[in-house]
Structures are given as C-alpha cells and as structure tokens.
User: What shape does this take?
Amino acid sequence: MTSFFHVLNANRLLTELPTVERDGFMAVCENVELSFGEVLFQPTETITHAYFPIDSFISLIVVLDSDNRLEVAMAGREGMLGSSLVLGIEETPLLALVQGAGSALRITAENFQQLLLCSPVLHQRLKRYIYVVMKQLATSAACNHFHRIEGRLARWLLMTQDRAGSDQLNLTHEFLAMMLGVRRAGITLAAIALQARGLIRYQRGTITVLDRLGLIEASCECYNEDCALYAKMLPVL
Amino acid sequence: MTSFFHVLNANRLLTELPTVERDGFMAVCENVELSFGEVLFQPTETITHAYFPIDSFISLIVVLDSDNRLEVAMAGREGMLGSSLVLGIEETPLLALVQGAGSALRITAENFQQLLLCSPVLHQRLKRYIYVVMKQLATSAACNHFHRIEGRLARWLLMTQDRAGSDQLNLTHEFLAMMLGVRRAGITLAAIALQARGLIRYQRGTITVLDRLGLIEASCECYNEDCALYAKMLPVL
DNA sequence: AGCGCTATGTACGCTAGCGTGCCGACGCTT
DNA sequence: AAGCGTCGGCACGCTAGCGTACATAGCGCT
Assistant: This one.
C-alpha cells in the first residue's frame, strides 16, 4: 500500500472505491492545508471547490443575522463540504468555518461534477451522505430546541473529539457559545458542571476530555443517534 | 411579497415538464385522497411511494421521543414527499402527517426511481427541491432556537395558508402547540396577541387570516426567506 | 517584573416559556 | 333542553437562559 493511497484513505467517503474511480479522483484533486478560522464558503456564495477533509474539520453555520448564528452540522474526515454540488447546485446555504486546522483534498466544482458522471460508486455514496446530513439537520433543529445547554455541550465536545482525533481540543467558551447559539456565561456554567463530574478538564482555551463514556452519558441522545445513523448508512466496507 | 402558490392547480414540481416526461409520469401515477391526521410515513420506515400533493399538505415532524416532537418542514403542492428516493434511499427520517386533507399524485418507489432515469428535467428539478429543503431545515433549526413563539406562529400560519389555499384554517391551539414544540397555553397567548392586532380571528378550531400583509410583518424573517429561496431555486417557468 | 490582552468566574435583575390545573364556553349529540 | 366532550382563557409558581457588567487570572510580550 502506497503512502499516497493512505492519504486518500483518510477520508471515509473515499475509502474502498473501485480502482478506476479512485484514480480518476486522484488525478484531479489536490491536497490543501486549512487553517483555523478560515472561511471556506459564505452563505449563498458560488462554490468553486468541494473539500474532503483528512484531518481537518469544518463547522457549518446558519447565519440568521449578525447576532444570531448557530452551528447545524460539522464535516470532518467522515464527510465532505460542498455536497450541494452532488445535487448539481453550485451554491451553499451555510457558512463553512474551519474549526480544526489540517489537510483536506480539494477538487474544483467542474472537475467534481464531471467525475461523478463516471464514478457511480462514489456518486451513490455521496447521495447517502446527503441523506445523513438531512436527517442530522432535522434532528439538530429539535435538539437545539428541546435539550439543555449541558447536554448539547457534551454532545458537541464528543463530535469534535471524534473529528479532531485527540482528547485535547482548542476551544474557548466564547467560541462554544457561538456554536451553540447561547451566552458565553451559559457555556461557563455548563463546563463547570461537566468538569465537576470529572468528565472534562479545561483551562484557557484548551478542553481535555477525561471520561469519554461519562461524557456520552451526560450528552443528549442525539449524539448516539447521529453515530448510529452514519454507521447504518455509510458503514465501513 | 406574494405567495407562490395561488396560480396553479397542479403540483408545482410537475408543471412545465417536457411532454415525454409528463406522459411518463402520468402513466404510472395514481390519484389518491389523503385525509386529515393520516400518517404517510413513520420515521425509519421503508418508503413504498412518493407523493406529489395537489391540494393536500403534509407536515414533516422530527420525533425525538414521545414528549418531544417538532415540525421541521411542510410539503404542499410546491413540494413532494419521499424526496430521499431521489437520492436512491428508500427510507424516510421523518414522520409525515397529513395536515390538510385533499388529493395527491402517488407513485410507487420502484416506478419513481425508474422514471427518474429517463426524466432528466424532473430529476434535476427534484434535486433542486432537495437543496431547498436542506436549506429550510437548517434555517428552521436556527428559527426555532432564536425566534419567539408569536413570530413563529405567524410564520406557520402563513405557510399553512399558502398550502391550504384558503384564509380559513382548521386548527386547534393544541395542534399548533405540537407543531411548534411549545405549550398549548403558549399558543393561546400568541394567538391572543395576533388577534388583538387584527391579523387573525379564531374560534373553536378555526383560524381565519384577516390581514395577510400584517401577518407577514408580525412573522419572523424566515417566512420571506423561505419564499425567496423557493422562488430563486424553483422559479415558475 | 510589569503590562496588557484575553479567557474565565460570577452576580444582578429580567424574560420567555414551562408544567399544571381549573374554569367557562361552545357546540354536538341525544 | 340537557349533557358532555372539547376548546380556549387564565393563573400559579418555577426554571433556563438572557443581557450585562465587572472582577480575577493566566499568559505572552517587552
């Protein structure tokens, strides 16, 4: 197995493709480094590229107005950005903000859409991915409405940990407040509660997950359901 | 802003198709009557049919658990049910509840997926529809989180009015409470406020829209944005 | 060592909405 | 005309979370 293949292998949507499809993809993609805070897409902007994160991850955020924004989805190595290209639409409804620096494979919108025409396996897999995202969006709507900050915070930390592949996350309360659409002080209280239960430890912009199972326990059910849905629709082959 | 429904008496996704595609569709679809309260899909159930409402409309509801449910989308003659079939997935994530009785065109999952293979115009239009739904799901998440009951109620009444094609809606506060994921008493207060402003009138299970423009004024911006998005992505040809 | 920026802790009063329960009014049935 | 089930009005205390403000504490920089 070549190291190049290993890199490709790192995005879960691209694993185990037929050789011809993989080669086709590799021929037209490029490796890019994404840095924290980078904005890949602005809402309603035309998409020029699709991204397949390898060890980076990106938050997808609804911007209602300048005061009200809310993260509704996240894409790491299990997903992609620019999925609306799969539907033949060259615009994105959401703000895409790089939340974990790292690398990603990038492909131009045009090449990507060409490629899909002769990559039925990939195409089908990406349609399944869109279905997963739709269900997650719907669940998010209910979760944000009904669940308490503490449970939502726990869920968010778990999702981030999965994508960062590390116990240690660089996050401020301020940033978390923006993601969850709540006050910074609200995050502080929830974080104190989680820390008091020994589930996390944090200091000045770094949060460490100490007890992953306990955190799952503390999170709302939505975390487990998200995982189960992904596993069902996009199993590791 | 005017609503985008009043002109047509057929399903808007099916209008202005090339003759070949329309004939193909008509050959395999059937007309069905949907009655209030009927459940067309249960979450995670296998979909057997796609529906294209004509003068009926259907609520799509996330069921978190027995206490917590929330409407996240609505499909009337501007949309369809079973859009995941367009993605090649034969299951639905949401509860589909008939909210306005009436007729719809129905087509079996198998026929539908066959048909799409030789109906490029329809296929493309339905992919655009999925994009619209995705954006609406994302916006809903933020709207339900940030906006007050009164504004959300106004928005919901407008959306329902558009799809019912009538000023008079048969709705109880109880039902509205379930849709918006709030208390019945919360709806009563919001409804009193809207009535006091002369925007609606209601009485024992019937709500009449008196001042549509005023109601738009009272609703959150999400209503206008939904309309604008649909108009942009799926214009009348 | 001291400065200053930023992250976090905390406290204040306030509001929206919750859960609940009760009552009256409407209107359908008999 | 009476009875009854459903619908809507309302009131109670309660909670989560808001907006705001200010204080402390860690950390990099000079």
